[in-house]
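Q: Hi! First time doing this. I have a protein sequence and I read that you can turn it into a structure. Is that right? Here it is:
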Amino acid sequence: MPHPVRMDRVAVVAPSASLRDVLVRVAAAGMVEIDTAGAAQAGPGDAGRRLQHVPRPPERAALAATAPDLNDLERAGRYDLLVGEAQLEGYAFAARRRGDVAALAGWAPAGRVAWLAGQLSAVSGAIIRLPRPAGLDAPTLLGGTPTRRPAAP
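A: Yes, that's right. Below is the predicted 3D structure, encoded as structure tokens:
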């Protein structure tokens, strides 16, 4: 039977120059729900603009381990990677900045924060536990065996 997993309020923090690499690690971990609500909306970035001309962009995004050349992706028809880069652009734009440091708030499973901290430190990033905002309910993550997780709401 699935059981609820306690979620912690966190901030993903990185030097601006390392933000893409940190976000790729966060995406690979697949466990942080980043808040973008309330962030200023910008027009699409470079990758997003390139996707506007694609008749049918793919539904699934992919990410390259290192920053790709967007011209090469476009020429090769790697629209899945362009979608991934466009998503990264959106998160990067939503990040709060102070000097050369960028931060994004979100939620992560409490028992996995230390592991993720190790993953992010390898690319000059960090994850910091934050106090839970008053009046804000944490999202619910249902745990359980891997065979039961896909069926969990």
